[in-house]
Structure formats: structure tokens, C-alpha cells
């Protein structure tokens, strides 16, 4: 009998007792190759000695001091590190305990900014369908995962959702990628105008979509067109890089590859690599200055803001990543990983699409490649892939996104950046075996 409120109340997962490098070990002595970094969290792998040493040193020095009384050396150092490598114009870092907190903070920062500059009528957010921004109520309100939103919809702040950038399902056959991106930007513009251009606070988007439709990479020019639309109406652009940021896609920030600079950007998972719960909002100077010259106070806060232990872990993770050139490694090995996945799964009859960048890949499973029809959700294909993969000693991150108004099946891969080519090959091979076994059984059940 467990007293832990597990997410699945009728199942108790295996007990994790140890970890090292690319592996997690359970109480039965089984070792799992970590192909998803948990939920795209582990960037340096497990039990990295330098990160552990930095945490030990920090706990001996200062474990906690509330930010209403003090700042800490380590929070200042982490903020310097992040601003030193941030997109142009970013001047301040708001340090929180995770992704949802980062998104909540960014939403409130954006709202307060407009209150401070005399535009309090701006009350509305626009975001995208098939997106995920976290499970707290504000983050859930801008999120566009229909299943996650459904029970809570009546208690969410209003937000408008426009189309995601999802070429596999939504790009028309007769339009180029560039035309598709412009069509989406025009849809955003229409949504802003429908709301009233002076009533919109921000457009919120994951630069590369993550945990709803299995890694959605933007088409070329999409974000530049989105940035132009936002600028035309004074709407802020909030990019959520909680999952896709901090090196995951082969550049430190995913937006670098799009040639755009957001007004606010959230990061989390890869920031601390799982060693501590930590997240951050990076803010443009003009937003911070408006608040500084106005009320002088951000009307928000949490008990564990800038927690010294979290900052120490994140600082060590980021320093090791920089010293070891891991972002460049992810970019290079990511291309090889994409080829391995294509070799292992590209011709599979139930693999509709393989897409990604760096160490961030999504595989979309379908009954039929020609029609792109998803499996019946009752077959629980994604959950079964996860279970089957675990039985083969592989951790991948499958989930059901919404496809054409119903759940679809996706597998997300986000291995730690330390993965060798041999590890990547092993991941592709074990995953292919799982996907093959599970989808063939599901297809047979579909045909009956
Ligand atoms: N934003 C994005 C893009 C995410 O992928 C997630 C988590 O998966 C979140 C926000 C929420 O982060 P957390 O689970 O740390 O609250």
C-alpha cells in the first residue's frame, strides 16, 4: 500500500534507487537506458560528479535564504551566466522552481508591464492549440492540449488558441513551407484583430513544440512573421523554451535558429538538468525598466525564488555544458540521431512522421501512412509503447496528443547530451523493436 499520490492511482511504478550517466536503476536491479531524460530534463545525464560537488559545496555554504531579505552569490552568478548567453536585449532573470512557475511568472510579468505603461485594457492572451505550457491554472489556460484542459476549462482565464505549426497534418499540399508559415501568421493577426489589437497582452508559443504533438519544429520564416505581427500591434511575444531550450535543439536557445528575439522567454528543464527543480524567465530590458520606473515591484513571488541549491546545480550544469561544448555536440550528433531513427523506423508502416532537431525528436504513430489515421485511443498505443520499451530497458516519453480532435500517439525522445553515438544507435534499435511490436498488435486489433 502506497501513501504517495501517484499520477496513476491504480498503478505503482517501479522504485528508482540509483542512477549514473545514461542509466537509471530500479529496486529489482533493472537498468534503464534513458532516452527521454525523464521529460526532456536530463541534459548532463545522471550523477554528474561536478554537479554533485557544486551542490555539496553550496549546501555547506548556504542552503536557503528568502529573497525578501537577501540575494545570494550563486543566484547572481547564475543570472550573469544566463544573461551572458541570452538573446539580444535580455537584461534580467527571474529564478523560479520549474516550468509552470516560469510560465505563470512570464504571463503576470507581461500583464503587469502593460499596467505599468498605462495600457491596463490589455487582458487577453493568444496561444496555440496542441501546445503545453504547464499545469498550473494560468499556464493551463494558455496551453492548448484539449485533454489536459477539459476538466478545468470552466475555471481558466480566457485565452484564444490559433493553429500550431504542424506541417505533417496542417500544411496544405499546394503551399510551400514559407507560404504555410505566412498563413499561420495571418491567422494570428486575424485573432489579434478579432480580440481588439489594444486588448491583447501577448502571443505565447513553444519555439519547438514538445509534450503535446511530439516535437513540432517551426517552418522557416514562421516565427519571423509572427514577430512582425506582434510588433505591428504592440503585442508581446513570450517564447516558452521550458522543454526545447538550454541546448536541447542544438542551439542554446531554440529561438536562435528562428532568427527572432522574444520579449520574455521561459526556460527550465535543461537549465538544472534534473539535479534541482529550477526554472527562469529571461526578460527584455524595456520590460524590467518599465516596472522599475513604475511601481518598482513585481507583484508576484514564491517562497523558493532563486533557491541557492537550485542555482548552484543550474550554474554547474551550464558551466559544464559550455566547457564541454555540448550544444555543438548535440547539433552534430542530432543529425546522426535523425538518420538512425530514419533508418530504423522511416519505412515502418505505422510510423507517420519522424521530426526533430538536435536531441529532441518526435515520432508520430498512425494506423495507415496514406490516410494518416491515428489509432483508436482505446488501444492505448502510446502507453503500451512506454511499457514495452521499459521491458526492453529503455525509457522513452510517449503521450497522446490531440489529432483531428482526438488523441493521437506520439513518442518523444530527448536523450541526455552526453549520449554517445553508440547510445543513440541502441536507443533507435530498442525503440524500433517496441514500436514494431506494439503497433503491429494494435493494427491487428484495429482490423478485427
Ligand atoms: N512549458 C513547456 C513547454 C513544457 O514542456 C512544460 C513541461 O513539460 C512546462 C512548461 C511545465 O513545466 P513543469 O512541469 O516544470 O511545471
Would you kindly provide a written description of the structure presented here, covering whatever features stand out?
The model has no long low-confidence stretch (mean pLDDT 96). The strands form four sheets. A seven-stranded mixed sheet has the order 4-10-9-8-7-5-6, sandwiched between helices. The protein has a four-stranded mixed sheet with strand order 1-2-3-13. Helix 2 (49-61) runs antiparallel to helix 12 (308-323), helix 8 (177-195) runs parallel beside helix 9 and helix 14 packs across helix 15 (421-447). The chain has 15 helices and 17 strands. The chain has two domains: 16-34 and 325-447, Aspartate Aminotransferase, domain 1 (Alpha-Beta Complex), CATH 3.90.1150.10; 50-323, 3-Layer(aba) Sandwich (Aspartate Aminotransferase, domain 2), CATH 3.40.640. It is of the alpha/beta class. The chain has helices at residues 37-40, 49-61, 73-84, 99-116, 137-142, 146-149, 167-170, 177-195, 222-232, 269-272, 285-293, 308-323, 326-345, 381-391, 421-447; strands at residues 16-20, 23-26, 31-34, 90-96, 124-128, 159-162, 200-206, 236-241, 264-267, 279-284, 351-357, 360-365, 394-395, 397-399, 402-403, 406-407, 409-413.
Helical amount = 25-40%
Question: What is the topology, as strand order, of the major beta sheet?
Answer: 4-10-9-8-7-5-6
Average per-residue pLDDT, rounded, comes to 96
Unreliable stretches (pLDDT < 50, length at least 5) are: none
Judged by helices, strands and strand pairing, the structural class is alpha/beta
Going by CATH, the homologous superfamily of the largest domain would be Type I PLP-dependent aspartate aminotransferase-like (Major domain)
Number of strands: 17
Amino acid at each position: 500500500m502506497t501513501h504517495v499520490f501517484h499520477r496513476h492511482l491504480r498503478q505503482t511504478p517501479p522504485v528508482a534507487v540509483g542512477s549514473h550517466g545514461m542509466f537509471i536503476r530500479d529496486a529489482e536491479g533493472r537498468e534503464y537506458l534513458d532516452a527521454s531524460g525523464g521529460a526532456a530534463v536530463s541534459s548532463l545525464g545522471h550523477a554528474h560528479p561536478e554537479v554533485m560537488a557544486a551542490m555539496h559545496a553550496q549546501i555547506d555554504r548556504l542552503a536557503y535564504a528568502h529573497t525578501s531579505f537577501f540575494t545570494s552569490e550563486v543566484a547572481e552568478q547564475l543570472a550573469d551566466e544566463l544573461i551572458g548567453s541570452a538573446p539580444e536585449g535580455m537584461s534580467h532573470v527571474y529564478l523560479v522552481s520549474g516550468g509552470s512557475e516560469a510560465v505563470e511568472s512570464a504571463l503576470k510579468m507581461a500583464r503587469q508591464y502593460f499596467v505599468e505603461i498605462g495600457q491596463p485594457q490589455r487582458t487577453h492572451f493568444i496561444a496555440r492549440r496542441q501546445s503545453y505550457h504547464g499545469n498550473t491554472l494560468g499556464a493551463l489556460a494558455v496551453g492548448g492540449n484539449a485533454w489536459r484542459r477539459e476538466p478545468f476549462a470552466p475555471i481558466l482565464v480566457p485565452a484564444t488558441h490559433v493553429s500550431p505549426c504542424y506541417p505533417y497534418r496542417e500544411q496544405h499540399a499546394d503551399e510551400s513551407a514559407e507560404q504555410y508559415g505566412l498563413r499561420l501568421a495571418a491567422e494570428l493577426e486575424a485573432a489579434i484583430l478579432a480580440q481588439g489589437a489594444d486588448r491583447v497582452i501577448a502571443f505565447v508559443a513553444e519555439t519547438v513544440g514538445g509534450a503535446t504533438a511530439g516535437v513540432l519544429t517551426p517552418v522557416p520564416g514562421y516565427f519571423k512573421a509572427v514577430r512582425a505581427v506582434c510588433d505591428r500591434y504592440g503585442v508581446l511575444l513570450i517564447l516558452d523554451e521550458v522543454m526545447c531550450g538550454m541546448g536541447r535543439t542544438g542551439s542554446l536557445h531554440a529561438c536562435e535558429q528562428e532568427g527572432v528575439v522574444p520579449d520574455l522567454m521561459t526556460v527550465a528543464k535543461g537549465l538544472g538538468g534534473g539535479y534541482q527543480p529550477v526554472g527562469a524567465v529571461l526578460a527584455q530590458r524595456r520590460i524590467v525598466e518599465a516596472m522599475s520606473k513604475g511601481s518598482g515591484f513585481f507583484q508576484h513571488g514564491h517562497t523558493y525564488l532563486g533557491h541557492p541549491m537550485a542555482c548552484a546545480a543550474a550554474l554547474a550544469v551550464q558551466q559544464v555544458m559550455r566547457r564541454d561544448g555540448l550544444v555543438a555536440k548535440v547539433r552534430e550528433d542530432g543529425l546522426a540521431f535523425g538518420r538512425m531513427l530514419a533508418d530504423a523506423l522511416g519505412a515502418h508502416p505505422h510510423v507517420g512522421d519522424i521530426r526533430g532537431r538536435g536531441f529532441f525528436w518526435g515520432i508520430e504513430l498512425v494506423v495507415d501512412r496514406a490516410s494518416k489515421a491515428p489509432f483508436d485511443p482505446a488501444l492505448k498505443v502510446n502507453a503500451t509503447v512506454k511499457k514495452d520499451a521499459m521491458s526492453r530497458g529503455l525509457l522513452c516519453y510517449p503521450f497522446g496528443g490531440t489529432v483531428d480532435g482526438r488523441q493521437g500517439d506520439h513518442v518523444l525522445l530527448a536523450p541526455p547530451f552526453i549520449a554517445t553515438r553508440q547510445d543513440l544507435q541502441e536507443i533507435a534499435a530498442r525503440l524500433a523493436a517496441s514500436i514494431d511490436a506494439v503497433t503491429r498488435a494494435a493494427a491487428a486489433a484495429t482490423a478485427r
